[in-house]
Here is the input.
Amino acid sequence: MILIILNIIFCLSFLVFAYLNLNDVDPWLWVPIYLSASISCGLVVFGKYYHTIWLLLVAFYLIYAIILFFAKDGVRDWITKYKKPSLVESMQATKPYIEQTREFFGLLIISAALLINYFAT
Here is the structure.
């Protein structure tokens, strides 16, 4: 029951994230990322388990997260060069590291959600 409730929350959250990314500079990338996570979590609610697909998605998300971590003005620069200033002062990405760091953490959240499903089912 907890897994179903958690997946309803994940499904709706990732659906909202996909919608919010429609006006991003790269919606062609982020809308499918969030939609695939939303659909994957939504299917769990109906008892549909796709372990192989979850692992493939997690692999893609984690590889992309590693790329964002080491990219110029990525997470590593946010930690070392910029000394970890707040990422949530405003919704606008006014600094060069904000967008990539937020995307990095979004990928980690999606990966965690899918791994919870993988190990719980």
Remarks:
- The CA atoms of residues 74 and 80 lie 10 Å apart.
- The chain is about 75% helix and 0% strand.
- Helices lie at 2-20, 27-45, 51-70, 75-80, 96-120.
